[in-house]
Amino acid sequence: MFARLFAPTVTVHAHCDLPCGVYDPAQARIEAESVKAIQEKYQGNDDPDFRTRALIIKEQRAELAKHHLSVLWSDYFKAPHFEKYPQLHQLFNDALKAASATKGSNDPKTGQTLLDLIAEIDKIFWETKKA
Amino acid sequence: MFARLFAPTVTVHAHCDLPCGVYDPAQARIEAESVKAIQEKYQGNDDPDFRTRALIIKEQRAELAKHHLSVLWSDYFKAPHFEKYPQLHQLFNDALKAASATKGSNDPKTGQTLLDLIAEIDKIFWETKKA
Amino acid sequence: MFARLFAPTVTVHAHCDLPCGVYDPAQARIEAESVKAIQEKYQGNDDPDFRTRALIIKEQRAELAKHHLSVLWSDYFKAPHFEKYPQLHQLFNDALKAASATKGSNDPKTGQTLLDLIAEIDKIFWETKKA
Amino acid sequence: MFARLFAPTVTVHAHCDLPCGVYDPAQARIEAESVKAIQEKYQGNDDPDFRTRALIIKEQRAELAKHHLSVLWSDYFKAPHFEKYPQLHQLFNDALKAASATKGSNDPKTGQTLLDLIAEIDKIFWETKKA
Amino acid sequence: MFARLFAPTVTVHAHCDLPCGVYDPAQARIEAESVKAIQEKYQGNDDPDFRTRALIIKEQRAELAKHHLSVLWSDYFKAPHFEKYPQLHQLFNDALKAASATKGSNDPKTGQTLLDLIAEIDKIFWETKKA
Amino acid sequence: MFARLFAPTVTVHAHCDLPCGVYDPAQARIEAESVKAIQEKYQGNDDPDFRTRALIIKEQRAELAKHHLSVLWSDYFKAPHFEKYPQLHQLFNDALKAASATKGSNDPKTGQTLLDLIAEIDKIFWETKKA
Ligand code: NI
Ligand code: NI
Ligand code: NI
Ligand code: NI
Ligand code: NI
Ligand code: NI
């Protein structure tokens, strides 16, 4: 049943330095989804306290997105990946800077930019898992 | 392309108290996968320092699994869900206790028990999202 | 009334997953007292920066209250307690939702609601400790 | 003796930098109780993995005790208190060093030393609250 | 003046409770520099969301400054230091209170006051390292 | 050699996403010094509990080193720097992997490798600050 729900993500991933061998760009993506959703809610609500809370929480979610991205770049991806995907260093640096940019902006487009970059990373990630 | 990769998980989820409206059992599941992978690596390596590190990291990943589960139970699920799924309270309590149990055990079966309980929660979660 | 409820909180308690066996609803209560005090200070001070800081800190204290409540529910209370106090699952879920509600409100009444729910939990907790 | 010391702990307290005005030595005491309980459990169980977990968790609880003590010393106590209780600076420094000492020892006596110092601080704290 | 104070900070230092033996007031100083820089940026930008973010981040950096100061006071400095520098207890208490004050103020002068107190601590620190 | 490298570290730096504009490789370096010192203490003490604590703390300090490095790479360094120093991406990736390696090793040589890589980053950092 799990198989059906998560069918195409199927195998598993890792994310610590044991290393346990489990990594998954979904962690960064979920935080980025949250960032964009917060930006949309900010746009739809002009109560100053609501907006202050939106900024507080967006700061945290964007920081978590950065953390998960950094883990992927430094712990999962290795020399052979960087050879095969020479754009990977810059892609991650762009994604991290995009996450920082969402902290200073309430425009959902910045959240979408971050999501797009994570989607590029996700695509490469799963290609390397299949390889 | 994102659509294809994540096809069946499709819609998005939320996990803070703004609330942003984004929730996803995948967060708990990924940590639980890590817990089980650590238990398996522990069984396959009798270096005492490696095992100590396995215990340190397993403690953290299990704690994160507990956090993500608690957020789902208290923030995502609401009165109508508890009416429709009267087993939900106990299911979450069992899952949290199963996560605690993985801290004190290096048997991958305890990690699998946690994963099975998260899969039950996941099933209900996505049913409520479709409803 | 508080005096009566907390009068017997003389002995000691525990709160981790070793488990050390020490639990105490006072941890959640102290954070909730802080939440309510912050809401009162917010009401008495209309400096925008003070209010922003109140929101930042209230978010943290309410989150800590939620954490301490979740630990009690998943780690301290066990099957026999849930049989004897069938309301316990819902009581904790209500308390966690009340804590979330204090994040989005600056009305001290929401802080008091949280404190009242924690007082109910505290009463049951000490009954089980005496049993 | 604890009963006597904590009997009047009915009223409330504060602990952040808004400041909310709520402080309570119970926060440090609960962590220290946990530290001592962990040391006792360590002595009663010679399973190496249990002992490793005891060390991991004791490190965290002792660190939390230090944090709560530091907050009391820097945020709650002010110039008039230090004049009236000239021993207060050294008492806090001793308590913090006693908390550090519990990290490096599994002897419950070190946990008790920490508890005794916190009890001294607690006594002074409640005298100043009544003043 | 900073140049003179920090010129000899060539050798290295430590900061945990193993203890590893590495301590360095630079950790507190860097956070305090950040606090002051944030206050200056706050003064130069009247966008309400920018100011909210400044308050969020200043709260964190000031808290980190407090943590690093507390570690120095409780872990690095010992009885012989307190005998030789009887002002040390009060100096640290003042510095911690100055850090708290920067949370509630956007005046860079409060950031500078904190930096000046850290510079005094730094001077004594390096004298004791040379001794 | 360290003396030469860090001699000009007189001016100040920044490290958040406001951004405050303060960055300093000293933050990563101090954690790395701690890592290496812990490895040396581990080698000099065969008490199993001491060694367990060394592993616990080393894990934390290495993680902090990684965090500080990641901040420098994603927040401080920008496109013109990457053009002028094309080795920068790989250098940071190597440093992060070296930090991960110190978690899994108790050989002080791995701590020194991390320090050497941070020293390279530090050298470039201060060149860009002067530019
Ligand atoms: Ni992992
Ligand atoms: Ni959310
Ligand atoms: Ni405990
Ligand atoms: Ni407070
Ligand atoms: Ni240290
Ligand atoms: Ni900064």
UniProtKB/TrEMBL annotation, chains A, B, C, D, E, F:
One Pfam family per UniProt: Sod_Ni
InterPro entries noted in UniProt: NiSOD_sf, Superoxide_dismutase_Ni-type
Signal peptide limits: none
GO molecular function terms attached to this record: nickel cation binding; superoxide dismutase activity
The protein's name in its UniProt record: Superoxide dismutase
